[in-house]
Amino acid sequence: MTKPLRVGMIGYGFMGRAHSNAYRQVNKFFELEYEPVLAACCARSEDKIKAFAENWGYESYETDWRKLIARDDIDLIDIGSPNNTHKEIVLAACEAGKMILCEKPLAMDAAEGETMLQAVKKANVPNMVWFNYRRVPAISLAQQIVDEGRIGKPFHYRATYLQDWTISPDVPQGGAALWRLDVDVAGSGVTGDLLAHSIDTAEWLNGPIREVVARTETFVKERTHQETGETKKVGIDDACMFLAVFENGSMGTFESTRYARGRKNYNTFELNGENGSVFFDLEDPQILQYFKYADPKSGDKVEDHLTGWQRIHVTNSEHPYMDRWWVPGCTIGYEHTFTNALADFLKGLETGQPVQPDFASGLRTQKVCDAVLKSAGTGKWENVD
Ligand code: SOE
């Protein structure tokens, strides 16, 4: 017998759909003690949220998130609404003693993130930030390879996150689907939206970032606001490049833009160490590239004429998460990363082992983002704390 976990989902956009799908799928593929129940969803527009509730099979809907949080029949609040709503919802959910799953980035900035972390600690409620890319099996495998000591002393970390959907100056800012372009709602541009993913993965694989120096650019200076029709100055960073130094002494480069014509969701990283390297590209998501130079246990070098990059097709049942899905060779996709993350969260409830990335980890990423944006202003190296 599973224990029902009654979910209150806030937001109905891209992430509302991705999370709802995970709630529906998770117990079909993972053996778990808890079973999410789609109890209620919530958004301001009644037409939209009613249609969303019907489509995904939510039992009910609300148009005021405070009412949702006040309901006794909700155990968990899932925040899929824009970034500027996260803090207030988290604080209210903590007051009501609800578990919280929050979309990335955790907050508008580190100060908000700190307040949110203190609130979940005080309320002692389970929490997670939806950095879903950790649950791409190939990325989890990269982490396993690092953990197994196969990379050796790390020297370089190189990340890119490129898109191209805001090149036209005719794309409005603000409002449904376009709030990521409005600095008052998003907090920042590519730094919080895309580099937050790259930073979360980087710190997971290669440890904390100590210092950064950054440069940002806003290519389109003014855009029309979708809701008011007003033409306003654009406050977000359209592109950001930064250099980093990790605590372990390795060096990092990070690049992100929404102006890389042809790149839709090009999220890559490479880690180079003394004994090996790993490379991942989200446009080739089933593959992890691994270069083995020496064996971590024996220290024996691979014979020179046999060295080369291996393209590991990450679909074997021995690979992270894959024993839950299909037979070897059959791939999984973007939506499964949310189901895998949710399964880990539910397992964490069962075992009492808090899942990662939690709010503390989300705050770390936020601090790196803050240091990056600060450095873009000062033009100097900035410490992360
Ligand atoms: C932006 O276009 C976006 O939807 C991000 O907000 C997501 O986090 C990323 O995974 C895909 O791109």
Question: How would you describe this protein?
Answer:
The chain is an alpha/beta fold and 385 residues long. The chain is 33% helix and 25% strand. It has helices spanning 14-29, 46-56, 65-70, 86-95, 110-123, 137-147, 183-186, 190-206, 334-351, 359-378; strands spanning 3-10, 34-42, 60-62, 76-79, 99-102, 127-129, 154-162, 209-217, 222-224, 231-233, 239-246, 251-257, 266-273, 276-281, 287-292, 309-313, 382-383. Strands 16-15-14-13-7-12-11-8-17 form a nine-stranded mixed β-sheet. Helix 5 (110-123) runs antiparallel to helix 10 and helix 8 (190-206) crosses helix 10. It starts with a strand and ends with a strand. The protein binds alpha-L-sorbopyranose. The site of alpha-L-sorbopyranose has 4 residues, from loops.
List the helices and strands and how they pair.
Blueprint: E1 3-10, H1 14-29, E2 34-42, H2 46-56, E3 60-62, H3 65-70, E4 76-79, H4 86-95, E5 99-102, H5 110-123, E6 127-129, H6 137-147, E7 154-162, H7 183-186, H8 190-206, E8 209-217, E9 222-224, E10 231-233, E11 239-246, E12 251-257, E13 266-273, E14 276-281, E15 287-292, E16 309-313, H9 334-351, H10 359-378, E17 382-383
Parallel strand pairs: 1-2, 1-4, 2-3, 4-5, 5-6, 7-12
Antiparallel strand pairs: 7-13, 8-11, 8-17, 9-10, 11-12, 13-14, 14-15, 15-16
Helix pairs in contact: 1-9, 4-5, 5-10, 6-8, 8-10
The chain binds alpha-L-sorbopyranose (SOE).
Alpha-L-sorbopyranose binds next to loops.
